[in-house]
Amino acid sequence: LVAERQARVVVAERAALLAAFDRLAAAGPGAVLLHARPGGLTLVRNREREDLAARYDGPDVYVALDPAYAADALRAAVGPDVVVEIADALAHVVVRSADDGTATTLLMPVRLD
């Protein structure tokens, strides 16, 4: 049996996170590296970087996502904030509305080139 890793829960402003993914999607092909750290999120693609405030107090965690799929997940969410659950770099990421979780999307991580 493989032990399941506990997901790290990040709460971020949906509009700000969506705008960051949209800006990075315009930076060219490739995945976006999402780095959750205490007090914030950092998104990196190619040489572009976006730092956002977020509610998170766990250890640093990283996952690479396709920016178009991540943006679609954020557009589907409801309310001003979203919850992003990250277990590790190889497990699916859950994006859900922070209000009552009515809109939930699963994203698979991608490899960094």
Short précis:
It contains 2 helices and 8 strands.
Q: Please mark out the parts with pLDDT under 50 across 5 or more consecutive residues, or reply none.
A: none
Query: End-to-end distance, in Å?
Result: 31 Å
What's the story with the biggest beta sheet?
Answer: 8 strands, antiparallel
List the secondary-structure elements in sequence, H or E: EHEEEEHEEE
The helix count comes to: 2
Write structural notes for this entry.
The protein is an alpha+beta fold. It contains 2 helices and 8 strands. It has helices spanning 14-25, 67-76; strands at 8-13, 32-37, 40-45, 48-55, 61-65, 81-86, 93-97, 104-107. It has an 8-stranded antiparallel beta sheet with strand order 5-2-3-4-1-6-7-8. Strand 6 (81-86) and strand 7 (93-97) form a beta hairpin. The longest helix has 12 residues, at 14-25. The protein is globular.
Question: How is the topology of this model organized?
Answer:
Blueprint: E1 8-13, H1 14-25, E2 32-37, E3 40-45, E4 48-55, E5 61-65, H2 67-76, E6 81-86, E7 93-97, E8 104-107
Antiparallel strand pairs: 1-4, 1-6, 2-3, 2-5, 3-4, 6-7, 7-8
Descriptors:
113 residues; alpha+beta; 2 helices; globular
